[in-house]
Amino acid sequence: MSLPPPPASGEPTPAFFLAGGTGISAETLGNMILGQFPGVPFHTRKIPFITTVERAREVVAMMDAARTGSVQPLVFSTVADEAVRSALQQTECAFIDLFGSHLDTVERVLHVNAAHNVGSVHGVGDQGRYEARMKAVDYAMEHDDAQSVKALDQADLILIAPSRCGKTPTSMYLALQQGLKVANYPLVEEDFESSELPAPIRPYAGKCFGILSTPARLSQVRGERRPGSRYASLPQVTYELRRAEAMYAMHRIPSVSSASMSVEEMAAVILQSMDNGRR
């Protein structure tokens, strides 16, 4: 298949993320690849739950309609079903098979045929794991922003940070994706008067992980919530971040900055730290 000429300057390239399930994996992996081309504009669309050949043909027609003389759409697929995947591969777009191309290799190594189970990754294929994730989400919601300090002994992890550093989304991500029971505790004005941990989490220092930011970024985030306030002022956020950093250092609490990291990247750093002996 011949490729069209490069697109006109500024014209976005369509990128489709296809999946037989939720599309989380296709979107994540596809965006990782697209992220290697920071100067190229993309228009992305996720199409989940492609479970029949008929639906696959409808998707192919839609994707092919996006192909022009100057734009070649990209297609990232994690569809497991062989018949559906075969139908999708009939597209005139550039098809990147994120599933089937690697599945054959694993089958050869294991000498076992794959189940081609759509729900085995993000669905409820593993009922026990699914229930653990839901319980973890409930725990994270109950213990968000220190709404409850009960059952902290059951926590796998306690995130601590000054306000608006990203505790809540990180907690929810780790609960939903990893099934971890995560509490998060905000550091407030009185907590910065000493380098001691706040009393409710003091017995659980070994479970704590700190989040920081940069003064400029934290001031910007707080300013969107309370513009012109002392809470969002640069001197205030600088003071809080310095005191938090001193607290982490005193208690040997590992930390990560949310200033330039995605939730996924922060979660990976936290999980690595836990695997290195803090679980």
Automatic annotation (TrEMBL):
Binding sites annotated in the UniProt record for ADP: 161-168
EC number, as in UniProt: 2.7.11.33, 2.7.4.28
Keyword Nucleotide-binding annotated: yes
Catalytic activity from the UniProt record: [pyruvate, water dikinase] + ADP = [pyruvate, water dikinase]-phosphate + AMP + H(+); [pyruvate, water dikinase]-phosphate + phosphate + H(+) = [pyruvate, water dikinase] + diphosphate
Keywords attached to this entry: Kinase, Nucleotide-binding, Serine/threonine-protein kinase, Transferase
Molecular function terms, GO-annotated: ADP binding; ATP binding; phosphotransferase activity, phosphate group as acceptor; protein serine/threonine kinase activity
Keyword Transferase (UniProt): yes
Function as written in the Swiss-Prot or TrEMBL entry: Bifunctional serine/threonine kinase and phosphorylase involved in the regulation of the phosphoenolpyruvate synthase (PEPS) by catalyzing its phosphorylation/dephosphorylation.
Similarity remark: Belongs to the pyruvate, phosphate/water dikinase regulatory protein family. PSRP subfamily.
HAMAP family noted in UniProt: PSRP (MF_01062)
Name the record gives this protein: Putative phosphoenolpyruvate synthase regulatory protein
